Amino acid sequence: MERFEQAFEEAMRSEVLPMDVMIRYASSAHGKRLRPRLVFLSAQLFGAVNDSTRRTALFVEMLHTATLIHDDVVDESDMRRNQPSLYARFGSRLAVLAGDYLLSKALLLLFTPEDDPILQEMFATVMAMTEGEVLQIRRQETETGEKKDFDQGLSRKELYLNVIERKTARLIRACCVGGALSVTPRLSPPTSHLVSDFGLNLGLVFQMRDDLLDNDTPETTALAKQLLPEYLDKALKALEVLTPYVKNKEVLNALRELTIFCAERDH
User: Fold this and answer.
1) Closest listed residue to residue 23, CA positions, set 106, 74, 99, 81
2) What is the CATH number of the domain that holds 141?
3) CA quadruple 143, 148, 150, 154: dihedral, nearest 10
4) What angle, 0 to 180 degrees and rounded to 10, lies between the N-to-C axes of helices 34-46 and 189-214?
5) Are 209 and 75 in contact (CB under 8 A)?
6) Considering only CA atoms, which of 181, 63, 64 is closest in space to residue 121?
7) How far is Cα 216 from Cα 194, in angstroms, rounded to an integer?
8) What's the number of domains the chain is made of?
9) Mean pLDDT per 10-residue run, the chain (267 residues)?
10) Which of 16, 134, 186, 192 has a CA positioned 20 to 30 A from the CA of residue 160?
11) Predicted local confidence at residue 152, as pLDDT
């Protein structure tokens, strides 16, 4: 992670001064680095961290940063991690461009032939995250009475899961799958499915815990409280089934502890 932080600081630069100021500002208040940690841990389940692993870790954190910038513009959020958001500091036009720049720069990291399987996973993830944002906005408009034409025939529970899977869980799944692919490009379908299953359920757990901590609306809080134990159990069971396929059982235990932390954290 020390090497990652150095590489990330280097990657978050631009030769154009206004852009450089914005993306440095966006990276100054970072979170837990959950996503690159998952890339490294998932890689170590099957082999040794290599250059492809490091590129993947940089990609997911840059993508995550870009989506947070765009989310703040869409939601008109003034604060991000206890400081003014990029949107509040520089305005919506520049913030959108900064997010676009980071996304483009991140994609360039994986434009080598050996990273093709990872890149395909990431392209699908970016599309899913965009769909999730649209679903969330339309759901909010329907609930507030702004729009009445949003009905997919889904229950509130199904719609909730649909949104958080796309907005959050797909990227966490991509971290796990991308890390594994970085050391084992031809991961067997059964193993790949188990890694994917674990990552998706972990992502759902992570977002449900976020929703409980945010206490945004009574409905969301109630759904998160109801569903979190079920999906925590699914994530832990996926790790258990994965045990015979991995080379490093110590890393598997670390992922188990990280999963429990995501479900129980208080911030």
Assistant:
1) 99
2) 1.10.600.10
3) 60
4) 160
5) no
6) 181
7) 32
8) 1
9) 95 96 90 94 96 97 95 92 93 96 93 90 94 87 65 81 96 97 91 96 97 90 97 97 93 97 94
10) 192
11) 64
- Burial (CB count within 10 angstroms: exposed 0-12, middle 13-18, buried 19+), residue 46: buried
Taking CA atoms, 248 is separated from 4, 33, 34, 225, 254, in Å, by 21, 22, 20, 33, 10
* Separation in Å, CA 2 to CA 5, 6, 9, 12, 36: 5, 6, 11, 16, 12
Structure tokens at 104: 């483009």
* Distance separating alpha carbons of residues 149 and 122, to the nearest angstrom: 31
DSSP E strand stretches across 157-197 = none
Q: Are 20 and 102 within 8 A, CB to CB?
A: no
Q: What are the distances in angstroms from CA 63 to CA 44, 104, 114, 224?
A: 22, 9, 20, 25
User: Which residue(s) pair with 80 in the sheet?
Assistant: 83
Six-digit token pair at 118?
């990872």
Residue by residue, DSSP assigns 201-216 as HHHHHHHHHHHHHHT-
What is the amino acid identity at position 129? Answer: M
* Domain of residue 185, residue span: 2-264
Q: What are phi and psi of 248, to 5 degrees?
A: -120, 100
Task: Write down the residue that tokens 């395909």 correspond to.
Answer: 120
Residue 249 CA: distances (Å) to CA of 100, 102, 181, 191: 39, 35, 18, 15
Q: Is 111 exposed, middle or buried (0-12, 13-18, 19+ CB in 10 A)?
A: exposed
Q: Do the Cβ atoms of 189 and 158 come closer than 8 Å?
A: no
Phi, psi of 189 (to 5 degrees): -55, -45
Sequence-ordered list of residues with C-beta below 8 angstroms from that of 51, at least 6 positions apart, any chain: none
